[in-house]
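Q: What does the predicted 3D structure of histidine kinase look like?
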Amino acid sequence: MQQSALPSVDAIEAERFRQFIMGVTDYAIYMLSPEGVVVTWNAGAQRFKGYHPDEIIGRHFSMFYTDEDRARGRPVLALELARTTGKFEDEGWRVRKDGSRFWASVVIDPIVDPQGELLGFAKITRDITERHQAAAELERAREALFQSQKMEALGKLTGGIAHDFNNLLSVIMNGLELLRMSKEPATIARSVDTMARAAQRGASLTQQLLAFARQQPLKQEAHDVARVIRSFEVVLRRALPDEMHLHLQIAPDLPQAMIDPTQFESALLNLVVNARDAMSETGEVLVDIDAVSLANHQVDRLPAGRYVRMMVKDSGAGMTAETMTRAIEPFFTTKEVGKGTGLGLSQVYGMMQQCQGALALASRVGEGTTVSLYFPAVEHTDAADEGHVAGSAEKVLLVDDQPDVLETAISLFTHLGYEVLSADNAVQALETLRQHPGISILFSDVVMPGMSGVELGKVARREFPDLKIVLASGYVKAALRDQMPDIGNFEMIAKPYRLSDLIRVLKAL
């Protein structure tokens, strides 16, 4: 009598595993063919996508994507990235059978046989709409709080402006009345002088406001800071009474810094006057200039690099911790009424933000105050050595979807002596990288149709670990970080960039 064949242990385990996957209801877990056609469909997929297996098996998975994503080629890109990098992860809107949208977390893994041949893809999708909406609500609450705080600060600012300008207008209006009533030359001359000073004070106040708002245009050029300070030394000394002493301490061989000399002199004079007012009848003011190398975020949010540091130290009363936290607020002042507007340090802070530098305060009650300004150093370059950047014999791949921008970048890199390859999209860039293994630098725009520069950088770094990557963008990095959290993993350069900016970034690599 012939016995019937019993299923093997492996077959039993495989069937149990299949039933387990098919029974999962919190996750959509299904298989795709190499072309993206749905092969299997579990209970979770049916629950929150709405399709019965008979309705979906045999159809292309791109039907779950929005019309916008299909037009951008996102489904094809997802499979391509999964195939070439070993995994694809993403979040975005997907469409149910009834046409409604849900926010999905997606993972796609390629399935290959022992010989490395692609058999298909395993796809896992989660409906995380509630979490996404909660995060959006939290962000809206944060934005509302920020707007409330901004309006409070604006109220303080406008109140201070109104107070100062009302005083100035009172001087001018009273002076005009005196001019109408008086015929004495001496009285007329005094009134004109008084009104002229009030008008000049109003102009100065406006400049300070613009500097704080970062709207006062800076004419930044590479300057020898030591030379600028020495030419301004007489004015600084005149700002101090005879009983106070100014000491200049300037390190030799300082690199140049990108400054607007007029705004720089105004900021320095502000700091020296503040130091004078912080002291009693006698005291010492030290202006110390040197060059420092900083680690990333060692001072405020400054990137790592070389900086020219200017420190203004006084031997005055110092500041309390509470005063320190409010020192750069507009119209905050500890001086007597009529002795200051509270805009001096705000103006300096605004200037430092404009020139990509930083302001740092150090103070202790009874021990004086030190204000440190950090200006990005400019390493000396001339026409003879611009073409000899470190690694100028290297190959570089430039990626930008704008033809004019790409052409300009090609010219700049060629001028620097690089061997240049180019691509106008990320997929073409990946193909170029695979076909030319000698490329050592990838220089890409961030915002491009389809795959972004950040996504390109992530894929390129996985495939080519030694590749140096620089991303260029006209957007503020903080704003980009909200949309693309991984952007902080790459070297950044801001658009529009000049040749000197390019040289600095390439040397840093």
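A (community wiki): The structure tokens above were generated from the sequence. Residues 129-181 form the longest helix (53 residues). Residues 133-212 form one domain.
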